[in-house]
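Appendix B, example 12.
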Amino acid sequence: MNAQYVTDIEHVVGLTNEEKSSLQKVTRWFAFRANDYYLQLIRWNDPEDPIRRLVIPHEGELDTWGTLDPSSEERYTVAPGVQHKYRQTALMLASDMCGGFCRFCFRKRIFVDDDSEVAFDLGEGLDYIRNHPEINNVLISGGDPLMLPTPKLEAIVAALRTIDHVRIIRIGSKIPAYNPFRITQDPSLLRMIARHSTPARRIYVMTHFDHPREMTDAARRAIAQLQQSGAILMNQTPLIRGVNDDPVALAELFNQLSYAGISPYYVFQCRPSVGNKIYTVPVEEAYRIVEMARARCSGLAKCARFVMSHANGKIEVTGNTAKAIIFRYNQAAESDNTGRVLVYVRNPRAYWFDDYTDCIASYRVSP
C-alpha cells in the first residue's frame, strides 16, 4: 500500500458538505494535509474521535490566542536551518513537509510564512557543527525528515557521520504513525539506517505517537524494521485536549509503546502557538493527568518526563503541594541553570511557565 496524500479538505470523504464548507475558513490560514491511510483510522460517526482531532481542522483554531514562535526558536538560530540552544545539542530543520499537519503544531509558521526557516542547503549549518566540538548530538527535524527522499536524508546523515564529535544522530518523525509504508516499502531507508547506526554511534528515531489507536499493525511493522536496522526508538507526545488528556488513554499509549520496545521520553505541555488554545490543557491539570497515567504503568512505561519546551529550556514539572508547584530545568539554554529548581504559587489557570508570576522561592540543587 502506498498512502495517497490529501491536501484539500473538500476531498476528505468522511466529512459532510456542511463541515467542509465551514472548515474552509480555517484552511485558508492553517494548511490541511493527511493521507488515506491515516484518515481511515478515524471513526467518522464520533465527532469527538481523537484521531480526527489530531489531523482534521477545527474552527477553534481561529482563536487569536498564542504566538507563532512560542519557544523563541529564532533566538537560537545560528546558521540557515540550524539552531543551537543547548550546549551539546544542535537542531537541524531539514524538511518543510510532514506526512500530515498536526492541528496543534508549534511550528505553524513554517507552513504559513513565505520566509521559511528550513534550509535546503545545510552546508553552512554543517560547518557550524563541525566547528563546535561541544555538540555531541544532532536532532534532524522540520517538518518531517522522513518526508525527504532517502538519498537526500542519507547525504545529511553521512555528512554528520564525518564529524567525529557528533556521537548521536536523532531523527524526529511522525511518519511511523502517519504513513508507516514510507518505512516498510523503502528498503533503501532501512539500509541507510543500518549503515550509519553503529554500536558506538547509534541513530535514534524520535517517534511521535499521540494516541494508542495510532499503534496499528502497519505501524508496529515499521517500528520493528527500524529496530532491526539498528535504530533506537523513543517517543515524544504533547498532552492534547481531546486526544490524550484522559489518563486511561495516555497510560495505554505508554504501555503500547513499551510493548513495542519504544521508550516514552517526553510528554510536552502543548505550546501556546497561534491556533492551539483548543488543544491545550492547563499545566496543573496536565501534570495530574500524566501522573495518573504513570500510575497505571510498569517502570519501563513510565519513563516519560512532563516538560515545557520553554524559550529558556526544557522545564520539567516535578511535583506540587497544596499551595506550590515545583519545576526543574531538565535542560537549560544557559547551562548554569541546568538542575535549577523553581517553586511557584499554584495557578490552575496557567497554560505556560510564563503564567507563574508570584515566585515563593528559587534555588539551585547542588550537583
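The chain has twelve helices and 15 strands. The first strand starts at residue 5 and ends at 6.
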